[in-house]
Structures are given as C-alpha cells and as structure tokens.
Design a protein that fits this description.
CATH topology of chain A: TIM Barrel
Radius of gyration of chain A: 19 Å
Oligomer: homodimer
Strand content of chain A: 5-15%
Order of helices and strands of chain A: EHHEHEHEHHEHEHEHEHHH
Number of domains of chain A: 1
CATH superfamily of chain A: Aldolase class I
CATH class of chain A: Alpha Beta
C-alpha cells in the first residue's frame, strides 16, 4: 500500500447481514460474496461461526464457506467467537479468522457473557490453535470509541487490550466504533496512538455510521495515517441497540470519497453501486447508503424521462 | 467568533421545507422557527419569496415573516430571487435577504431561466434597492462543487461570480454544494481559496449530504478555516434531482461533531434533537438524520423496556 492508497475490508456479508432482519439464503450469500470479490475487494468477511442460537442470520456460514469460489489474492475472513467457533471455521477450511471482544466490561458482558479478562483468556486458547494451524488472525476491539452502557471508554484500555491480543498471537487489530460514538478528533487521536504502538499495517478502522459521523471519522482516521477501512456494500448493518438506526459505512461512499481525494482503493465505485443494486433487488433490505439512493433515484428519474419521451 | 467556535446558519424552514412534498401550515412554520431560535440558532432562513407557482411550499412566507416573534441578536433571512421577490420581502419587513444563482450555466438556466450573466445583472438591480434600504445580503453561489447537468464546475468560475456579487453589493457568500457533489480535498481547496479571496467572515459553506459526503466535507471545510455552516434540523430537504435522496446536513449531527471536537456552536445538541422530535411528530416528513434516528429509536427501546418491566 502506497501513501495514497487504502485497503477496503468488506464486512457486508457478515456485519451487514447479521444485523438485518431479512435472512439471505446460501445461494444469495454466495453470489453476494462473489460479486463483491469481482468488483475488486481483496478482503472479505464471508460470515460468522457464532452459534446460530445467537445469530440465526449466520447459521449456514459453513455451507457459504464451502461453496464460495476462492480467488487468488483475496483473503476470505470468518468471524470466530471462541475455540468451538474456530474448530467449525477450520473444518470449513477457513485460513483467515476475525475474533471480537469489547474494551468496555459491560458491553463485553452483554455481548459474550464474559469479563474482559475472561475474553482475553478465551481468545488466548483459540489463538494457540489458530497459530498452530497457520491461520491469520484479525482481532476486533469493540466499543473502542464509546460504549452503549458505559459511555466513554478510556483509550489506554483499548490499547492495552489490543497489545495483549497481539502478544497472544493476533496478527492485526481492528478498532471497532460499535455504536458510531466517535467524533473526528477523538478518532484521529486514537488512530495516531494505535499506529504508533502497533504500526500502520496492523491497525484497521471498523467505523459505524450510527450517529452520522462515519465518513467524517474515516477522513480523520485517514489523515492520522490509517490505511485499512471496514465497510459494507449499501451500508447494510443497522444497530442492535437502536433498531432502525444506521450501521456500517457504505463501501461505495468510502470509495467515492477516496476517489475524489485521489486515494486509490483498487475498487471501482460504479461496480460497487451495481452490487448494491443487486442487494437492493434480491433482498428486502433497505439500503441506507445515500450515494446508492441518489444514483438509483437519478437513474429511475432518467428512465422515466426516457419513457415520457418515448410515449410523447 | 473565536478560533474554536462556529456559527450555524439554520436553513430548515426554507431549504429543508421547500424540498419536502409535505406542506406545513403557517402555525407550524412559525412554531418551528421559534423553537429553532429558542434552541440557540442565531441565523435562520425563515422562508422564500420565490413565486408560489414555482415553490408552493413557500407560498405563505409573507405571513410567516409577519407572525414570527423577532428576538434580539437573531438574524432572520428571507430568500429572494429577484427585484419582485425583494419588494415582497421588504413589505414583510425583512432586513436580511439571501439571493441565489448557479456557477454552472445549465443549472442556472434550469433553475431561474437565465444565463449566468443575466442573473448577475438581475441581482445587481435587486442589490441596489436592498443596499438603499440597508438590507444585509447573503449570496448563494450554487453548484459550486459540481452540477447535475455539467458535472465538474471550474472553481475559478465560482470565485469570479462570488467576486462580482460582492462587488455589486452582497455582504457575504455561501458556497452551495447543491447536489452534494464535492469530496473533502475539493471542498478544502475551494474553502481555502474563497477565504483567501474574501475573508473568513464573508464565506459560508452550504453543503448537502446528497451523496453521503456532507459531514466529511464539513470537517474538511472547517480544517481549511470555514466557520459558518448551513444546516437543517433533522436533515430535511431531499434532492429535487433525485426524489428520495438526502438533502441538507442535519443541524444536530453538525453540532454533535463540533461538540466532540471542542468547537463551540452556542447551540445545545439535545435541544436540537428535541426540535427534530417536534418536526417528526408534527409533520409527515421522514427525517434522514442518523443521529436523530439513533437517539429516538434508543429512547423508544428504553420506553418499551420500562413498559415491559412495569407489566412484568
């Protein structure tokens, strides 16, 4: 990655779909993933090995993993909660896993029913197995810029957890702004500290647009040096704490912003919009992406004009 | 205004409402304006004196202007298209007017049925009368960062038009990103050039979030030195070129961002959210503001929990 290029980590098939009430069948999930890869994404989170009791949307992740055609140069990531999930992931030939835990005690307790220390221990065991199997590990640290239960989260705590996870065998960190609580200077300062501590290639920003700050925070993170960004096509995702609220940053909006700044993502914006259009047509998900809404409404208006002309 | 403070120019009652299919009655418009002023806004665009044939949503602007209680220290702005509109504004005791024209020929032609030069001439006449009446003039230059018909708009052209308008008697310029076409570096560069040419107190940013870039562009403009920002409570507005697409930047999201950055706007975020809640309840407008959606869904979820507890 050069100074003026970024890497987009597409989380739509996992973080996007797991928070939608609509459940896609395996055929559609596989097609969505393959379309995203065709459009140029080189990192894709294809699903989650969390127990289906908790996330029914992801119950068929093994089958998805087995059926997706793997392309050279693309990393296919599966979300894994613990050793049991890791074993399911390994059976499905997963070579790249993502793990998650929260920086705030209350959120971690609510989310995985463990204290932060218990989560660190639990992941240590999983990492040992993963490392032995040569699996690459990405570690999400959630609530990095704010917690729905505790409010502010000291960033020292975020860094300490990240450091422990890397020491235990994780290859990289993704700072998760779970409820989109961050604001630009906060994200900028956190990004700088994380880059200084772990190096630019080991820190990703997993921002959410829940409170409308998504892209402004991404800009601030970019200015601080971050070059890996998590996004979701069409901005699927929603917020588990406030049904109806926004979720991930739209892949197409992130790329549109970087295109305008002369920053290369290796992905064609218009092809992302095509995939968003496919998701829109094939599912009942309302895509919150403003860029998608704008371009698709514009096309519809133009089609109507054509039609009017044709019948006039 | 200090280094770390901004001035919010509320356009909801005009730019917001004029693009909604819902038409508010005079009572509600007056109440909306008074609530916005109570929450701390010091600049408010209360309506438009454009002919009702073009903008039926604004047909009763005279009555609104007459009925709104004027508060000391607040500037009440009326949008004026030409000399005829100015005369209506003057009759309604308007002391602050905003005029508009586009930097791109095609948009100006479509919007006001004049060439750019004809618009400059038309506004010259209106400005002479306004200046004689001691009316303060804000001049919008629309399509400053892109045109729905022509695409790119050379910023030299934007600056030249702004310069002419100031020379003809305008007091300040608002750079209008009519279809939210700008991206952060573009907006930053334009902002720097405009500030250098006209001074920071004479340049406002009127950004739209049509393509999802709104707040990222606002951050870039702030970093370039801009201290006056146009917003609309709840992000009402929409886009006349793509029905269903987003409009203005939400006042509450702008203030939320600046609060987090330690930048004073003189306005309390939670009170803006209350006004957004009032608009939500009193009208059929779907408010696109993500912060409003998040906080109101959160409150609804909490109320439901309370209810469940009460009935358990």
């Amino acid at each position: 990655m050069g100074e003026d290029s970024v890497r987009i980590f597409e989380v739509g098939p996992r973080d996007g779909l797991q928070n939608e009430s609509v459940i896609l069948d395996v055929d559609r999930k596989v097609e969505m993933i393959e379309r995203l890869v065709e459009m140029g994404v080189r990192d894709i989170e294809f699903g989650s090995f969390v127990h289906p009791k908790w996330i029914p949307q992801m119950a068929d992740t093994e089958e998805v993993a087995r059926r997706v055609t793997r392309r050279e140069g693309v990393r296919y990531w599966g979300l894994v909660p613990n050793l049991v999930g890791l074993e399911r992931a390994l059976e499905a030939n997963t070579t790249h896993i993502a793990t998650f835990m929260s920086a705030s005690e209350t959120h971690n307790q609510h989310n995985v029913n463990r204290t932060v220390d218990e989560s660190l221990d639990c992941l240590k065991t999983a990492y040992e197995t993963a490392n032995a199997e040569d699996v690459t590990i990405r570690a999400y640290v959630s609530t990095a810029f704010g917690c729905p239960y505790e409010g502010d989260v000291p960033f020292d705590r975020v860094l300490a957890i990240a450091e422990t996870l890397l020491a235990q065998g994780a290859d990289m960190i993704a700072l998760g702004d779970t409820i989109g609580a961050g604001t630009p200077h906060q994200v900028r300062d956190g990004a700088r500290r994380a880059i200084e501590a772990f190096g630019v290639d080991r820190v990703a920003m997993h921002l959410h647009d829940t409170q409308g700050m998504g892209l402004a925070n991404a800009l601030a993170a970019y200015q601080a040096g971050i070059r890996i960004f998590d996004t979701s096509v069409g901005a699927t995702g929603g917020c588990p704490y406030a049904p109806g609220a926004a979720g991930n940053i739209a892949t197409e909006e992130m790329i549109h912003m970087f295109d305008g700044m002369g920053v290369d993502s290796g992905i064609d914006r218009d092809r992302v919009l095509e995939v968003a259009g496919w998701v829109d047509r094939e599912t009942d998900i309302d895509l919150p992406s403003k860029l998608y809404q704008y371009t698709s409404q514009l096309e519809a208006a133009e089609d109507q004009t054509e039609e009017t002309r044709a019948t006039a």
